[in-house]
Amino acid sequence: VNLILLGPPGAGKGTQARMLEERFGLVQLSTGDLLRGAVAAGTEAGKAAKAVMEAGELVSDEIVLAVLKDRLDAPDVAAGTILDGFPRTAAQAEALDALLAERGQTIDAAISLEVEDEAMIARVSGRYTCAACGEGYHDQFKQPKVAGVCDKCGGTEMKRRPDDNAETVRTRLEAYHAQTAPLIDYYRARGALTEVPAMGDIDQIAARLAAIVGTHT
Ligand code: AP5
Ligand code: ZN
């Protein structure tokens, strides 16, 4: 199965994708994580993407598709994927259809997380992650059981993203509304869209998503 998680920055795509990954044995493919990996590794794609990401704008379709294609051909991905943060433009959605068709596959469902913009600024500004395993936390909404110690791996180094400040989040929200939100209609038109209210408690939203994903696995 191939599932898409659509939603603005802070909607909980990464948080929920990681929970679905554990529960259903699917592989989370986050173009944001892939691009941050390329930036950290100093590859050509990473060099081109760095400043664009720090400004909160969208990286070019060409670069995003190049990093995604590499990952899509890795053997572990055969189990099925949760696409987190991709596609983000009409051109990416069309390229994805073509990439999957080449592999005899298709999109089974596009799940849109329905949230309020203003709340997203607080969510993103308070976010941090474990440097060792990538588990996500939040200053208010999701603290580790022991302060500063990762629940998942015991790591004690936490990091914050350079684009997680209130000003850049506004730019990212604008990019979402202008370029990505139109994809909701794209998937609705082909009967693949499911809208999920995503303002409440993390576990409640996870239960809603699991019920939907369960019908496709
Ligand atoms: P990307 O990494 O994809 O970031 P994003 O879409 O802005 O999404 P986020 O990671 O900010 O949010 P999320 O929805 O995953 O929320 P999370 O679960 O962490 O992209 C970054 C940049 O890379 C882009 O700006 C662009 O430059 C580039 N890029 C990436 N993909 C691209 C593409 N396809 N094309 C072009 N450019 C691309 O949750 C947020 C916080 O809230 C966490 O702290 C979490 O603990 C907390 N939280 C989660 N759920 C809840 C809840 N229900 N209640 C309270 N708190 C919650
Ligand atoms: Zn960890």
Notes on the structure:
The protein has 217 residues and is of the alpha/beta class. Helices cover 48% and strands 15% of the residues. The chain has 9 helices and 8 strands. The strands form 2 sheets. The chain has a 5-stranded parallel sheet, with helices on both faces. A hairpin with a 5-residue loop joins strand 5 (127-130) and strand 6. Helix 2 packs across helix 3. It starts with a strand and ends with a helix. The mean pLDDT is 95. It binds BIS(adenosine)-5'-pentaphosphate (AP5) and zinc ion. The site of zinc ion has 8 residues, from loops.
Question: How would the blueprint of this fold be written?
Answer:
Blueprint: E1 2-6, H1 13-24, E2 27-30, H2 31-41, H3 44-55, H4 61-72, E3 81-84, H5 90-102, E4 109-114, H6 117-125, E5 127-130, E6 136-138, E7 158-159, H7 166-180, H8 182-189, E8 193-197, H9 202-214
Parallel strand pairs: 1-3, 1-4, 2-3, 4-8
Antiparallel strand pairs: 5-6, 5-7
Helix pairs in contact: 1-9, 2-3, 2-4, 6-7
Mean of the pLDDT scores? 95
Number of strands: 8
| Strand and helix order | EHEHHHEHEHEEEHHEH
Going by helix content, strand content and strand pairing, the class is alpha/beta
Bound small-molecule species: BIS(adenosine)-5'-pentaphosphate, zinc ion
Radius of gyration: 16 Å
* Cα distance spanning the termini: 7 Å
Uncertain residue segments: none
Oligomeric composition of the shown chains: single chain
Percent of sequence in beta strands: 15-25%
Give the spatial strand order of the biggest sheet: 2-3-1-4-8
Instruction: Determine the number of helices (DSSP H or I, runs of at least 4 residues).
Output: 9
Shape designation: globular
Helix content: 40-55%
Sheet with most strands: 5 strands, parallel
Binding site for ATP: 10-15, 127, 200
Function: Catalyzes the reversible transfer of the terminal phosphate group between ATP and AMP. Plays an important role in cellular energy homeostasis and in adenine nucleotide metabolism.
InterPro entries: Adenyl_kin_sub, Adenylat/UMP-CMP_kin, Adenylate_kinase_lid-dom, P-loop_NTPase
Binding site for Zn(2+): 130, 133, 150, 153
